[in-house]
Amino acid sequence: MPFSQTPVKIAIFDLDSTLITTANGNLHALSPTDWKWWHPSVPNLLRSLVNCNQELVIVSNQGCFTTADGAEAAESLLFKEKMDAICHELDIKITIYAACSNDGYRKPRMGVWDVMAEDFRFDKGVKVEAYLVGDAAGRKSDHSDSDVHFADNLGIEFSTPEEFFLREKSKEEVGHKFDPKWHLPTNRSGTLNYKPSKNSLNTNNTTQFSTIPNLLLQRRV
Ligand SMILES: [Mg+2]
């Protein structure tokens, strides 16, 4: 199938410790209002990306959003309310994917990319250019390397929040707690390694909240 001439440009951001941090300084938010921007420059920079016709996407690993009996957990309600407040303040088109189980949607695995492919139609021949910004970069002080590995798995450009928002070179080297290159041929040249899955999930473009198994989708249009 031929690619369309105009590529869709997708700016992918991690959420916690990339776009926002807790207002109280704790690791996890205690209420829907317990958040602040990671840096004051973040909201205007995000708006400028949308003004440059980039699709803004947040991909976040979260905890379990369901209780043992299958009901919606308080963490899910807190997250959705917090994201509503963030989206309201940004007031731009934005799509949020929150992986809430240890399955194929969780970074650095690429299940979310299958959903994005349908949402942004690059499974239908639309060319895509994407990059990712995240704090889980495998640096010595990082809790994880899931963001840099997600970018590696997709073969897209990666930046830390310091590099992207502050134009500062990271004080610590971006690295790996585990290196996928030990096992997979990957590159960061911008050539996507992604191949569409035959079993990717359907989403509804008009729905504000849509829960598919273990993946919370939230969209502001
Ligand atoms: Mg993070």
TrEMBL record:
Query: What is the name listed in the Swiss-Prot or TrEMBL entry for this protein?
Result: D,D-heptose 1,7-bisphosphate phosphatase
What start-end ranges are recorded for coiled-coil regions in this protein?
Answer: none
Q: Which InterPro entries match?
A: HAD-like_sf, HAD-SF_hydro_IIIA, HAD_sf, PNK3P, Polynucleotide_phosphatase
What GO MF annotations does this protein's record show? ATP-dependent polydeoxyribonucleotide 5'-hydroxyl-kinase activity; double-stranded DNA binding; polynucleotide 3'-phosphatase activity
UniProt GO BP: DNA repair
Query: NCBIfam families, alphabetically?
Result: DNA-3'-Pase (TIGR01664), HAD-SF-IIIA (TIGR01662)
Organism field: Coleophoma cylindrospora
What domain of life? Eukaryota
**Which Pfam families does the UniProt record give?**
PNK3P
